[in-house]
Amino acid sequence: MSTRIGLIVPSSNTVAEVDFYRRLPADCTLHTARMYLEETTPEGESVMLDEHLPRATSDLATARPDVAVFACTSAGALRGNQYEAELIDRIGTQTGAATVSVAAAVRWAIRSAGCRRVGVITPYVDSLNEKIARSLEDDGLEVTGIHGLGITENFAIAEVEPERITRFAVDCFAGSEIDLLFASCTNFRGFDAREEIHQSLGVPVVTSNQAALAAVLDHLGAPAAV
Q: Residue 35 forms beta bridges with which residues?
Protein backbone atom coordinates (compact mmCIF):
# COMPACT_ATOMS: atom_id res chain seq x y z
CA MET A 1 0.00 0.00 0.00
CA SER A 2 1.35 3.41 -0.97
CA THR A 3 2.07 6.24 1.45
CA ARG A 4 0.31 9.49 0.54
CA ILE A 5 2.33 12.70 0.87
CA GLY A 6 0.26 15.88 0.85
CA LEU A 7 1.89 19.11 -0.30
CA ILE A 8 0.34 22.52 0.39
CA VAL A 9 1.98 25.03 -1.95
CA PRO A 10 1.43 28.57 -3.22
CA SER A 11 -0.56 28.36 -6.45
CA SER A 12 2.25 29.86 -8.56
CA ASN A 13 4.89 27.43 -7.26
CA THR A 14 6.19 25.18 -10.04
CA VAL A 15 9.29 23.72 -8.33
CA ALA A 16 8.28 22.02 -5.07
CA GLU A 17 6.23 19.24 -6.63
CA VAL A 18 9.00 18.48 -9.12
CA ASP A 19 11.64 18.29 -6.39
CA PHE A 20 9.47 15.94 -4.37
CA TYR A 21 8.20 13.54 -7.01
CA ARG A 22 11.69 13.12 -8.47
CA ARG A 23 13.03 11.95 -5.12
CA LEU A 24 10.24 10.31 -3.12
CA PRO A 25 10.43 6.53 -2.66
CA ALA A 26 8.57 4.49 -5.25
CA ASP A 27 5.91 3.47 -2.72
CA CYS A 28 4.94 7.12 -2.04
CA THR A 29 2.42 9.17 -3.98
CA LEU A 30 2.24 12.99 -4.02
CA HIS A 31 -1.00 14.96 -3.69
CA THR A 32 -1.05 18.75 -3.91
CA ALA A 33 -3.34 21.49 -2.65
CA ARG A 34 -2.71 25.05 -3.80
CA MET A 35 -3.04 28.38 -1.97
CA TYR A 36 -3.55 31.39 -4.25
CA LEU A 37 -0.41 33.56 -4.38
CA GLU A 38 1.21 35.64 -7.09
CA GLU A 39 3.23 38.25 -5.19
CA THR A 40 5.93 37.01 -2.82
CA THR A 41 5.62 39.82 -0.29
CA PRO A 42 4.56 39.95 3.38
CA GLU A 43 1.22 41.39 2.29
CA GLY A 44 0.58 38.73 -0.34
CA GLU A 45 1.56 35.91 2.00
CA SER A 46 -0.64 37.24 4.80
CA VAL A 47 -3.65 37.07 2.48
CA MET A 48 -2.59 33.56 1.45
CA LEU A 49 -2.40 32.41 5.07
CA ASP A 50 -5.66 33.97 6.18
CA GLU A 51 -7.88 33.51 3.12
CA HIS A 52 -6.52 30.60 1.06
CA LEU A 53 -4.71 28.22 3.40
CA PRO A 54 -7.89 27.08 5.21
CA ARG A 55 -9.51 25.97 1.94
CA ALA A 56 -6.32 24.27 0.72
CA THR A 57 -6.03 22.37 3.98
CA SER A 58 -9.63 21.18 3.91
CA ASP A 59 -9.21 20.15 0.27
CA LEU A 60 -6.04 18.19 1.05
CA ALA A 61 -7.75 16.43 3.95
CA THR A 62 -10.09 14.70 1.49
CA ALA A 63 -7.06 12.87 0.00
CA ARG A 64 -6.32 11.45 3.49
CA PRO A 65 -2.57 12.09 3.44
CA ASP A 66 -0.26 10.21 5.76
CA VAL A 67 2.16 13.15 5.88
CA ALA A 68 1.36 16.77 5.05
CA VAL A 69 3.91 19.46 4.15
CA PHE A 70 3.29 23.19 4.43
CA ALA A 71 5.57 24.14 1.57
CA CYS A 72 6.20 27.87 1.80
CA THR A 73 9.34 28.81 3.71
CA SER A 74 8.77 32.53 4.01
CA ALA A 75 5.11 32.18 5.00
CA GLY A 76 6.15 29.71 7.69
CA ALA A 77 8.55 32.31 9.06
CA LEU A 78 6.29 35.30 8.46
CA ARG A 79 4.64 35.49 11.88
CA GLY A 80 7.30 33.85 14.01
CA ASN A 81 8.18 30.34 15.10
CA GLN A 82 5.40 30.05 17.67
CA TYR A 83 2.80 30.87 15.02
CA GLU A 84 4.42 28.32 12.73
CA ALA A 85 4.16 25.65 15.45
CA GLU A 86 0.48 26.46 15.89
CA LEU A 87 0.02 26.34 12.12
CA ILE A 88 1.55 22.85 11.98
CA ASP A 89 -0.80 21.71 14.72
CA ARG A 90 -3.85 23.10 12.90
CA ILE A 91 -2.92 21.46 9.62
CA GLY A 92 -2.26 18.18 11.39
CA THR A 93 -5.61 18.31 13.16
CA GLN A 94 -7.52 19.14 9.97
CA THR A 95 -5.79 16.57 7.76
CA GLY A 96 -5.18 13.82 10.31
CA ALA A 97 -1.60 13.66 9.01
CA ALA A 98 1.83 14.03 10.53
CA THR A 99 2.74 17.55 9.45
CA VAL A 100 5.98 19.22 8.37
CA SER A 101 6.55 22.94 7.86
CA VAL A 102 9.46 23.79 5.61
CA ALA A 103 10.88 26.59 7.77
CA ALA A 104 10.92 24.32 10.82
CA ALA A 105 12.45 21.50 8.75
CA VAL A 106 15.23 23.84 7.65
CA ARG A 107 16.10 24.77 11.23
CA TRP A 108 16.09 21.07 12.16
CA ALA A 109 18.39 20.25 9.23
CA ILE A 110 20.87 22.98 10.18
CA ARG A 111 20.99 21.88 13.81
CA SER A 112 21.33 18.23 12.76
CA ALA A 113 24.37 19.16 10.69
CA GLY A 114 25.97 20.58 13.84
CA CYS A 115 26.18 24.04 12.31
CA ARG A 116 25.51 27.44 13.86
CA ARG A 117 26.93 30.22 11.64
CA VAL A 118 24.63 30.35 8.62
CA GLY A 119 24.79 32.30 5.39
CA VAL A 120 21.48 32.66 3.59
CA ILE A 121 20.53 33.35 -0.02
CA THR A 122 16.95 33.91 -1.13
CA PRO A 123 15.00 35.14 -4.13
CA TYR A 124 13.09 37.50 -1.79
CA VAL A 125 12.82 41.18 -1.01
CA ASP A 126 14.36 42.49 2.21
CA SER A 127 11.05 42.55 4.11
CA LEU A 128 10.83 38.75 3.77
CA ASN A 129 14.54 38.23 4.34
CA GLU A 130 14.12 39.86 7.75
CA LYS A 131 11.48 37.26 8.66
CA ILE A 132 13.72 34.38 7.54
CA ALA A 133 16.67 35.69 9.55
CA ARG A 134 14.55 36.17 12.66
CA SER A 135 13.13 32.63 12.38
CA LEU A 136 16.65 31.19 12.32
CA GLU A 137 17.99 33.44 15.06
CA ASP A 138 15.05 32.74 17.35
CA ASP A 139 16.10 29.08 17.18
CA GLY A 140 19.60 29.89 18.39
CA LEU A 141 21.34 30.08 15.01
CA GLU A 142 23.63 32.92 13.93
CA VAL A 143 22.84 34.48 10.55
CA THR A 144 26.12 35.95 9.35
CA GLY A 145 24.49 37.41 6.26
CA ILE A 146 21.31 37.16 4.20
CA HIS A 147 21.07 38.26 0.58
CA GLY A 148 18.07 38.23 -1.74
CA LEU A 149 17.48 38.70 -5.46
CA GLY A 150 14.55 41.05 -4.81
CA ILE A 151 11.99 39.11 -6.86
CA THR A 152 8.34 39.67 -5.94
CA GLU A 153 6.62 37.74 -8.74
CA ASN A 154 6.49 34.19 -7.41
CA PHE A 155 6.26 32.59 -10.85
CA ALA A 156 9.49 34.35 -11.84
CA ILE A 157 11.37 32.85 -8.89
CA ALA A 158 11.15 29.41 -10.51
CA GLU A 159 12.73 30.77 -13.69
CA VAL A 160 16.05 31.51 -11.96
CA GLU A 161 18.46 28.90 -13.31
CA PRO A 162 20.54 26.78 -10.90
CA GLU A 163 23.74 28.21 -12.38
CA ARG A 164 22.64 31.72 -11.42
CA ILE A 165 21.78 30.53 -7.91
CA THR A 166 25.27 29.06 -7.57
CA ARG A 167 26.92 32.28 -8.80
CA PHE A 168 24.81 34.31 -6.41
CA ALA A 169 25.82 32.12 -3.47
CA VAL A 170 29.50 32.38 -4.40
CA ASP A 171 29.32 36.14 -4.96
CA CYS A 172 27.70 36.60 -1.55
CA PHE A 173 29.69 34.18 0.58
CA ALA A 174 33.02 33.21 -1.00
CA GLY A 175 35.65 33.65 1.70
CA SER A 176 33.07 34.15 4.44
CA GLU A 177 33.32 32.35 7.75
CA ILE A 178 30.11 30.35 7.60
CA ASP A 179 29.42 26.80 8.73
CA LEU A 180 26.58 26.24 6.26
CA LEU A 181 24.75 27.90 3.37
CA PHE A 182 20.94 27.93 3.32
CA ALA A 183 19.12 28.58 0.03
CA SER A 184 15.57 29.55 0.94
CA CYS A 185 12.26 29.16 -0.95
CA THR A 186 10.37 26.12 -2.18
CA ASN A 187 9.97 27.76 -5.60
CA PHE A 188 13.74 28.36 -5.95
CA ARG A 189 15.79 25.72 -7.78
CA GLY A 190 18.29 25.50 -4.95
CA PHE A 191 18.02 21.71 -4.78
CA ASP A 192 19.44 21.51 -8.31
CA ALA A 193 22.22 23.96 -7.41
CA ARG A 194 23.05 22.37 -4.06
CA GLU A 195 26.03 20.24 -5.05
CA GLU A 196 27.65 23.00 -7.12
CA ILE A 197 27.28 25.45 -4.24
CA HIS A 198 28.82 22.91 -1.89
CA GLN A 199 31.76 22.35 -4.22
CA SER A 200 32.27 26.09 -4.69
CA LEU A 201 32.04 27.15 -1.05
CA GLY A 202 33.21 23.99 0.69
CA VAL A 203 30.42 24.02 3.28
CA PRO A 204 27.21 21.99 3.70
CA VAL A 205 24.19 23.34 1.85
CA VAL A 206 20.57 23.14 2.99
CA THR A 207 17.69 24.08 0.71
CA SER A 208 14.02 24.42 1.52
CA ASN A 209 12.77 21.45 -0.47
CA GLN A 210 15.74 19.27 0.47
CA ALA A 211 15.14 19.90 4.19
CA ALA A 212 11.41 19.27 3.89
CA LEU A 213 11.95 16.04 1.96
CA ALA A 214 14.50 14.90 4.52
CA ALA A 215 11.97 15.52 7.30
CA VAL A 216 9.33 13.50 5.43
CA LEU A 217 11.71 10.61 4.81
CA ASP A 218 12.83 10.68 8.44
CA HIS A 219 9.20 10.39 9.54
CA LEU A 220 8.71 7.45 7.20
CA GLY A 221 11.90 5.78 8.35
CA ALA A 222 13.08 5.79 4.73
CA PRO A 223 16.68 6.28 3.58
CA ALA A 224 17.63 9.84 2.74
CA ALA A 225 17.31 10.51 -0.96
CA VAL A 226 19.81 13.36 -0.98
A: 10
pTM over 0.90: yes
Domain CATH code at residue 158: 3.40.50.1860
Model confidence over 91-148: pLDDT tens digits?
999 999 999 999 999 999 999 999 999 999 999 999 999 999 999 999 999 999 999 9
In a domain, 225, yes or no: no
Residue 226 lies in a domain: no
Same domain for 42 and 26, yes or no, is: yes
Q: If we measure between CA atoms, which residue out of 13, 7, 108 comes closest to residue 66?
A: 7
Exposure string of 10-43, with b = 16+ CB inside 10 Å and e = fewer, is bbbbbbbbebbeebbeeebeebbbbbebeebbbe
